[in-house]
Amino acid sequence: NSKVIQTPRYLVKGQGQKAKMRCIPEKGHPVVFWYQQNKNNEFKFLINFQNQEVLQQIDMTEKRFSAECPSNSPCSLEIQSSEAGDSALYLCASSLQGSGNTLYFGEGSRLIVV
Amino acid sequence: GDKVKQSPSALSLQEGTNSALRCNFSIAATTVQWFLQNPRGSLINLFYLVPGTKENGRLKSAFDSKESYSTLHIRDAQLEDSGTYFCAADSGGSNYKLTFGKGTLLTVTP
Fold first, then answer.
1. What residues pair up with B74 in beta bridges, in sequence order?
2. C or N terminus of chain B, fewer CB within 10 Å?
3. Where does A5-113 sit in CATH, by number?
4. Set of chain A residues whose Cβ sits within 8 Å of the Cβ of B45
């Protein structure tokens, strides 16, 4: 069973508000991923880290999100100004390696933007 | 079109019966992972596959990279197998991100 911990489980924000989610990866896993799952079950890769360094991120993440994985603290993903289209389940996953390794997911943070 | 196509999109099974889910890839998948998403939202990893097959209890999965598909067989379906099954492909290299299918919603009925 996965030991990736995500908080909060739910958050409700108004348009234009900041929305921050946190993730504690499995112990010993240096690689962390964030995915967005929308109501149509489409997964969008947002960003990944190896230790504290960003490996890859999409354009949207770079422009509208703030994300970090500091050492000895939870990783975080923050939307700077929430939009209705950001309503989704945000899933964090960790793995031992970036490629060629099993991903372990948390239960996600469900964001509703009203 | 979808890079990872899952079929069927929904499936209803009676307890004790068998079935198979399938993923077809239009990307050069090097590894495949299968997940079950439970009602809480958590994605439980079922299999990590390089080309070949794996078995775990009532589940068996195969990945054929040459023919670009993967299957997940469920034997003797149980109520707790209900949920949404996703496959996800990794095309290797320095691109670490997985490409997911849109899932198969499985409902197991008594």
1. B19, B59
2. N
3. 2.60.40.10
4. 2, 102-105
